Amino acid sequence: MSNEIKNIQGERIDHTFHQGDASARRVVVLGHGVTGNKDRPFIVALAEGLAAAGINALRISYSGNGASGGKFTDATITKEVADLGAVLDAYAGWHIGYIGHSMGGAVGVLRASQDERIRLLVSLAGMVRTADFARREFGSVTPGAGFMWDDEKCPLSQAYMNDLTQIGTVLDAAPKIKIPWLLVHGTEDDVVPIQDSRDILIRAGNDVKFLAIQGANHVFAGGHTAPMITTVVNWVKARF
What we know:
The protein has 240 residues and is α/β, with parallel strands linked by helices. The chain has one domain (15-128, 168-239): Alpha/Beta hydrolase fold, catalytic domain (Rossmann fold, 3-Layer(aba) Sandwich), CATH 3.40.50.1820. It has helices at residues 41-52, 77-90, 103-112, 130-138, 158-167, 194-203, 225-239, and strands at residues 15-18, 26-31, 57-60, 95-101, 118-124, 181-186, 208-213. It has a seven-stranded mixed beta sheet with strand order 1-3-2-4-5-6-7, sandwiched between helices. Helix 1 packs across helix 7 and helix 4 (130-138) packs antiparallel against helix 5 (158-167). The longest helix has 15 residues, at 225-239. It is globular, with a radius of gyration of 16 Å.
């Protein structure tokens, strides 16, 4: 385990470790979505739930987000896939699982489809059709001038839009994932439609489970946080 994690650009990846079983060289990495970071309340709560169940958890902020190094305008799915590789390098020899929310879910699908060091995957409201997302959410915003969801801390970059458009969709990566995989999505998600999870489920292998959480929004807010955590923790504990 490394106390400092840097990506290939030399940028520090901020992280927080939650100890579950100190004797186990096993850890579940938690990755956030666009405009998010490792300190989003439901991610903190999920990490605490995993640790309470005896599962080591590591919350990370991708480069350019939160307290990590790098610029927000350089943050793309492709760069975050590489960032996740740097985290895996830092935990060489460990049994590693990954939980990704929203855009972090797309990152997980792409990394797990090409990196056998990830042994278990959870997608929370995972983004699947990346080009559609870019067009739907930010198609009317001018890159380099406007902001994501009118948040001045989150300028929209051309690099971000280009990357989502070039990836297009992560559907084709699904059949390459041979590890246990859990898809969790809220029925009232108005950021990433639940259909994204339903569609990638069809392309996934045999060891996959899909669970819809009735009434939950994109971040499983309010009374939907606890059922999400219970679902994920119980599944991870059984499979990890």
